[in-house]
Amino acid sequence: MAFESRRDVFQAIADPTRRQIIQLISGGSLNVNSIGEHFDISRPAVSQHIKILIECGLVVIHQQGRERFCEPRLESLREVAGWVVQYRQFWDQKFDQLEQYLDAEAPPKPAKKKSRSKNK
Amino acid sequence: MSVKAKQFTHHRTFNASRDRVFAAFKTAEALAKWWGPAGAPIDVISLEFKPGGHFHYRMNGTQTHYGIFHFKSIDEPTSITWVNSFADEKGNIIKPPFEGIDIPKEMLNHIEFTEKDGHTTLSLTSEPVNADESEINTFNAMHDSFKMGFTGTLDQLEEYLAS
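The joint structure predicted for all components is written out below.
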């Protein structure tokens, strides 16, 4: 598909299956077959996603005996992850400061509940 | 071919009435105290809190940056819509001062204020405007990684990257 020609970290994480694969291998190398077992989609479909991850530079394959292992190369994700976290942090920080501002500007509360005048 | 930008959403509930929360967006005195980098109050250069008006400010950190709001619509006390950008000292919109990644220059922010039982929730949506395809793709990738709970695994990922 022509529109899938982008091969960078954003293309890599644009698909939920690929994000799951990244998650699976983020702890270390996994063999290709065991990655496939985590998905209901066909093996060729999983292989296609792995191929895209390789082309995007997030995975390298190495052969060990008869098995093929997916090794994570997730350094380029740091940039994206950093950005994701930063944008959320940007707003959390604004909201934190707004909260502090509102607390500091809060109108004085009645010292005791008893002191409130009662409406009968 | 045009790429459509997805929305970033976020919200927070404050222990304050809607009028008080809304008021924090209205004056230079209030904005100076909370809209700015952590622990670094901003200098308000100008503020016109009305549709078509703008809010131009200086951020005093290790480096000085300027930012600007262009208010699009204000519906007191229920919503504010504005475009937020980095700026120069004259208020001209500039590219974000970050290297190596295409961040949208202009973010359209919309905040809804809703009050319940004396608490006020701010619901934010944020999306790029006037962005090129590369900027939108960046933003969309960022958005998706939120949506799918990817951030939940980020600690693990961070650990991996740090190791």
